[in-house]
Amino acid sequence: MRVALGSDHAGFHLKGEIARHLADRGYVVIDLGTHSEEPVDYPDFAAAVARAVVEGRADRGIVVCGSGAGACVAANKIRGVRAATAHDTYTAHQAVEHDDVNVLCLGSRVVGPALALELVDAFLAARFTGEERHRRRLAKVAALEETPG
After folding, report:
1. Cα 13 to Cα 65, 105, 122, 125, distances in angstroms
2. I want to staple 85 with a disulfide (CB 3.0 to 4.6 A). Which of 43, 96, 105, 108 is the partner?
C-alpha cells in the first residue's frame, strides 16, 4: 500500500516517526513535507496529501498538524477526499469501515507517538464494508459536493 504523508511544522517530528513505522512494515511512504520545524501553513500539506490520494499516487493519506482539525478541514476541501480526525482507535478504523475515509488527520499536540502509531495501524488495516446503508450515505455526501450553498 502507498501512503502519502504530510505535516505542518507542529506535526513534523510525529510525521517522521510515522514514516519510519510504515517503512518498517513494508508500506511505500510518500513524504510530501514539510521537512523541518520552520513554520509553514498546514493547508498546503493537507492539500498535497489529499491530491496524491485522489490522483491515485497514494492509496491512503495521513496528515499531522497540531490538533488534526485544521488539516482535516483543508483535506476535505479536495473533491473525492473523505478525511477524519481520530484520537482513538475506534474512530480510526470505523471511519474507514463505515465512511470510506481515505485520509487520516492526527493532532501531534493531542496524541503521543505510541497512540499515533496505533491509530495509523488501525486506519490502514481497516476496509470499507460496502454495506448498502453506508453506500447510500456516501452517495448523499458526494451529492453535497455538487450542491451549491
Report:
1. 10, 15, 20, 23
2. 105
